Amino acid sequence: MGSDTNAVKRIGFIPIVSIVLATVGVIAPILWSYYTNTSSIEIRLESSLSLLKDDPLLKEDLVITYKGKPVTGLTRMDFLLLNKGRTPITQSDIYDAPKITFGEESKLIAAIVTSKNPPNLAAR
Question: Can you give the pTM of this predicted structure?
Fold first, then answer.
């Protein structure tokens, strides 16, 4: 323990504090710049509601059609696509549009954009 005290005495307290503050002064702006300039897209399943999913009580008695074609099972899924970062995502940031895929046995019958923020987004 005495050698640690001697090292501080030899180098001096002020130079050590100066080195620590200089290191923090260099690293802090780099981390702050990274933190404030990040952008990230997240797709989140907000809700899922299944109707007529192999209901044995209604299977024979109830037929639902969509545009004239019978539907055996119906599920509504609401997804949220959002920017989790701190900066807006520009067109040049997107290399490939986000996609949601389902299994081969599923058939998508409708996709609707229910809201956009800001309203001028080109969502389809």
Answer: 0.56
Report which DSSP code applies to 87.
S
Question: Are 96 and 57 in a shared domain?
Answer: yes
Tokens of 95: 């290399």
Contact between residue 86 and residue 38 where contact means Cβ atoms under 8 Å apart: yes
φ/ψ (deg, to 5) at 108? -80, 125
Domain extent at residue 17: 2-36
* Residue at 5: amino acid letter: T
- Sign, Cα dihedral of 83, 88, 91, 95: negative
- 30 and 45 inside one domain: no
Same domain, 85 and 29: no
- Quick: pLDDT tens for 52-71: 666 666 667 777 788 888 88
